[in-house]
Amino acid sequence: MASKEGAGNLEWRINVDNGATERLVPKSGPSIRIFLWLKGLVMKVILERLSKFMRKTWKIGADDPAKVVHCLKVGLALSLVSIFYYMRPLYDGVGGNAMWAIMTVVVVFESNVGATFSKCVNRVVATILAGSLGIAVHWVANQSGKAEIFVIGCSVFLFAFAATYSRFVPSFKARFDYGAMIFILTFSLVSVGGYRVDKLVDMAQERVSTIAIGTSICIIITVFFCPIWAGTQLHRLVQRNFIKLADSLDGRVEEYFKKKDVSENEDEETNMKLQGFKCVLNSKGTEESMANLARWEPAHGSFNFRHPWQQYVKIGAAMRRCAYCLENLSICMNYETEVPDQVKKHFGQACVKLSSASSKILRELAEMINNTRKSSKMDFLVFDMNTAVHELREILKTVPVATNKPEEGDSNEDRTMPMSVHEVLPVATLVSLLIENAARIQKTVEAVDELANLADFKQDSKKKTGDNKAKQPPQRSTPGTITNKAWGVATEERLQAWPRTAGPPVVMNPISRQNFIVKSRPE
């Protein structure tokens, strides 16, 4: 054992068998070990939570870069408006009230152009109106002599009551709720504050000028620096909802009739598609809010100044009616009662055909809205869907009343047993929901057609005229007469198969989308 002293420290070393020396380190006590263990545990927990928080924060920005852009624009707006506070000439020019401009930027700057425009206009108009009324009330109160306090108090009560009550009116609240709140604040400050202030008019002018500066900076930055339009967001939301409905409808029906265990064998993305109709059910508030904000925005892109934004709300309501059908369809498929395979096989092909035809219409509607063009094949798709509905109704009339079940003793021998009502009821309910969903999809098509007419959607470039007459939508001159050759050929096989003893068949006209009776058969 040897000792070595250096730099004021004493170090002990020992000789080992191989001739080397090792440093002797004193053992730490129990309290030190417990402290070090707790320190490591706390640091590990803190680092894990910090790492998890940073990953979530990064994911939010990566999934929606518009949020990062909005944060950058808010910082830029505040930096610009702060110049009025830092520079003495600008600060004196607004009477030392530059802080009002900063407060204006903080409260009116929103994530999209429509919301920013709405708050800016509401704030400016409400401030000017309330300031003018406050000055008028102050002048009347000065002329009333001893009744000055009574006049000011009564005016504050009446105007505050009227402005607050207006916020309960739905049509007013949707567009001017923020303006009513600013009106109450400004009127109270001017009318009540004017009782102790001599230069009331100068104070009101400075307040209006600072608000004008703040709102101007907000509008310039939100419009000219990476603008985020509420109208475009609404347009894309409706288009995505159509695709989600189509994916949910296709996936649900195929899962039921083709025995696809999606929850176990498919990935998470497929499960999300099956639940897409729930996003449509929860989008009502977002659609109404965006539609109200889009009305404040100037013309941009393919949207004119008076674009029919409220029609998107009607389309969303029509889509939610379809989503309610899909929700009931999902519940119906989860019945505990086991449906015989014979019944599923009887309805499977027709149900899959109807769901496929319906989902094609939903995807075509999404394409119409995405391209802002009228569809050249929508009439044919609706015709196919109504044909599938008619076929499914005919199959519903021929439900099997018996099923083949294996004998208990011998699995190779089958016996015919009558089918109970509760075994057929789930499939019958599913068929009824599919037919009802087709009718609701047709109402949705009408709502989108109305939007196309109001917004002047252009004709589809794929739709030709002249030499491509065979691909034009079927036309009819009078009820009961097929005038388009392509349509007649498409339904010829169905008419030939119609029993001679039965009544005249019913054919769907894809233009009017109404049934009519065919009075003659093709020879």
Automatic annotation (TrEMBL):
A single cellular component GO annotation: membrane
Which residue ranges have biased composition labelled Polar residues? 474-484
What are the start and end residues of every segment in region (Disordered)? 459-487
Instruction: Specify the protein name.
Output: Aluminum-activated malate transporter
Query: Family per UniProt?
Result: Belongs to the aromatic acid exporter (TC 2.A.85) family.
Q: What kind of membrane protein is this, topologically?
A: Multi-pass membrane protein
**Chief place where the protein resides:** membrane
Alphabetically sorted, this entry's keywords are: Ion channel, Ion transport, Membrane, Transmembrane, Transmembrane helix, Transport
Under the heading InterPro entries, the entry gives: ALMT (IPR020966), DUF1138 (IPR009515)
Q: Where in the cell is it found?
A: Membrane
Organism field: Brassica campestris (Field mustard)
Q: Which GO terms describe its biological process?
A: malate transport; monoatomic ion transmembrane transport
Q: Where is the composition biased (Basic and acidic residues)?
A: 459-470
Positions of transmembrane segments: 98-117, 124-141, 147-166, 178-197, 209-230
For this protein, the record's PANTHER family field holds: ALUMINUM-ACTIVATED MALATE TRANSPORTER 10
